[in-house]
């Protein structure tokens, strides 16, 4: 056996290099051609049924409005029912013919089943499933006092459960799945190791599912946002003790001078991309270049993050927060002024 591996060790790299070199230009030309073709044939979602989890705030809320403007029927899920009712009302006003609100905690299997059943029983079909519900943890591994609180129940299992229940319906309607991962899946942001890992796991999950389901369903769009304005970037984190809290200082330290995108713009890009059947979407799109840095010189990214995001021994503030305070950049990097008061989970 060893001799086969030795042979492959020798032959595989030059083979990969030469074939990639020869194949990449025609492959990308073909892909460009296809994407232009699909953009003309973008899906019309009028009257179709869309499930959005985590629709009570942030990106999910705006994704719901975007589908509503296109005339889709909605099933909205999250834990805060009052917020969902408000979002539902606004979605109806924007053009959604029918909206169902399902209070549900996606870390529970039976709740995920209830979300999909509601869509199937009331509308008789599911066309798009947007797995958006998520919480962000902000703690270094050492600072986490009870590590079991950080299990990726919402981010990872929530998406897996709803997907599992929705697949039979998506097969019938040749429907689509839209998964929310994060650019943190490839950027090793400090204090986000578990969040990062749950998002990287999601990308891996959807990539495999894409092969398993093939053309039986309409497609899977994996979204990897950077910092987008929402309760998350306004400081809603799962903190050291395992409680969800609003922490403006933590948010300043994590987001710092990285420009924050508008949730409306992000939602618009997500729905457009899903209707066109694209495989991946990074929003804002300039973040894609960071992937190249990560692949070709990971040491540079690691060094910058360490310098920027972790406080030096004996200091309490991180460099990222100092720069934000000194430069006064908050005013023009955040789309709106931050109001932590109305963010508190109710
Ligand atoms: N904002 C960013 O910069 C950014 C960057 C990368 C990725 N993302 C991803 O984008 C997605 C949306 O986040 P966001 O930025 O819009 O944050 P957000 O404003 O905090 O929204 C998160 C949504 O998830 C819901 N949710 C949380 N826990 C839940 C649970 N156990 N069961 C059901 N719903 C739950 C929340 O509603 P309730 O509190 O009512 O349950 C809320 O509607 C997340 O998956 C996040 O990881 C965001
Ligand atoms: C989408 O379909 C609906 C009917 O199903 C139709 O009324 C509408 O004009 C279509 N919209 C576009 C942009 O083709
Ligand atoms: C969701 O359910 C989990 C597990 O039962 C629980 O720990 C968590 O507090 C619940 N979240 C909300 C927002 O109710
Ligand atoms: C800090 C951390 O866990 N970083 C990881 C984030 O995810 C990527 C995988 O996509 C890993 O390579 C990083 O090490």
UniProtKB/TrEMBL annotation:
Transmembrane segments: 15-34
InterPro entries: NAD(P)-bd_dom_sf, Sc_DH/Rdtase_CS, SDR_fam
One GO cellular component term noted in the UniProt record for this chain: cytosol
Domain of life, per lineage: Eukaryota
Single Gene Ontology BP annotation: steroid metabolic process
Compartments, as annotated in UniProt: Membrane
Molecular function GO labels: 17-beta-hydroxysteroid dehydrogenase (NADP+) activity
Gene3D superfamilies tied to this protein: NAD(P)-binding Rossmann-like Domain (3.40.50.720)
Main location: membrane
Coiled-coil parts of chain: none
Topology of this chain in the membrane: Single-pass type II membrane protein
Keywords assigned: Membrane, NADP, Oxidoreductase, Signal-anchor, Transmembrane, Transmembrane helix
Signal sequence, start to end: none
Record family assignment: Belongs to the short-chain dehydrogenases/reductases (SDR) family.
Record-given protein name: 11-beta-hydroxysteroid dehydrogenase 1B-like
Organism whose genome encodes this protein: Vitis rotundifolia
